[in-house]
Amino acid sequence: MLKSLFHWKVLLNILLAAAVFTGLVWLTFRWLELHTNHGKEIPVPNVMNKSVHDAIRILDDSGLDYEVDSFKFDPKFRPFQVLQIYPAPGSRVKDGRTIILKVNPRTWAQVSVPDILDRYKGLAFRQLEQVGLKVGDTIYEPSIQRDAILRMTYNGTALKPGTLLPRFSTIGVVIGAGPKRNITVPNLVGLTVQEAKAVIAQNLFEVGLVESEDGKQDESDIVYYQDPAAFDVRDQGMQIDIWSSKKTPAEMGAKISQLNSIYRIRLEEVPPMPNYDDGPVYTEPAPRTEPRQEAPKTETPRTEAPKTETPKPATKTDASKPTASKTTADPKPKTQTTTTPAKTEEKPKARKVVVE
């Protein structure tokens, strides 16, 4: 068997197969070199900071293809200025390679205006900021929608939601200032229903019940009654009910009287009720102060010397009138000491002694 493997015919077939394989490989690589222009490379020209028109002309002269892509607008650079290039300048590429150019656009990209009508101003301002729009002039207008966006303007013209504007554009908004208080109700009697609705809307009231006599709701009917009454004071935004008919108000006297009995209630004057809430005012008694007990004072009576009365010699001898002399019978008065409140002591009286 080994002899058959080393037969000259087998060896010849192996050599022929290797030669064919080697030839096919060489032809393949040669075809790739011719097809891909191997060894023929072109340096990428530097077109940075040039205008897009100049960059395209240079790339065409170099035999390179190009693709222009708008970059994010930067106001620091000129419009249509090349800001980035890929591959980088100086890189060697094959002939016909596509070069990507990033160009600064002429202005900001356009954005769609969001629908912020009839929304609260705080929420509306946040939505405008999210899409890149700025709020300019803010005008307040009388409306029952307090702090709600009524209209949008751009350069003095009305702006509708969905309009495309350049990014960072400034728009104006009209905001409702809220209803006014204590506004006089207009007189609608004698007007047609259409005119009455226009007057109600003009004074920022709301149209309430509209009742027609024949039930056809004709706009040309004449208003003969309204509630609240004309010249009453109400807040804006409140409803005004109207009654209409083909007839004039003078011919609807009975119906007007009936409606007056329902909607025009007269309040009789009633004397004021006594106020039972005001009862006797309770005054807190003042605290009693007890008299302080003072210690009794001990009073020592003064001792007086007894008085001795000496009889005078008589100039005339009278047997019937003897001479009298006064002497004190109690020369030593008694000293009294008591613990009870002191009483005023009487002084000892002198006794009269008659000496015969």
From TrEMBL:
Domain of life where this protein originates: Bacteria
Pfam families cross-referenced by the UniProt entry: PASTA
TM segment ranges: 12-32
Keywords: Membrane, Transmembrane, Transmembrane helix
Composition-biased stretches (Basic and acidic residues): 287-310, 343-356
Family annotation (InterPro entries): PASTA_dom
Biased composition (Low complexity): 326-342
Residues covered by region (Disordered): 271-356
PASTA domain sequence ranges: 39-105, 179-246
Keyword check for Cell inner membrane: no
Protein name as catalogued: PASTA domain-containing protein
Species per Swiss-Prot/TrEMBL record: Kaistella pullorum
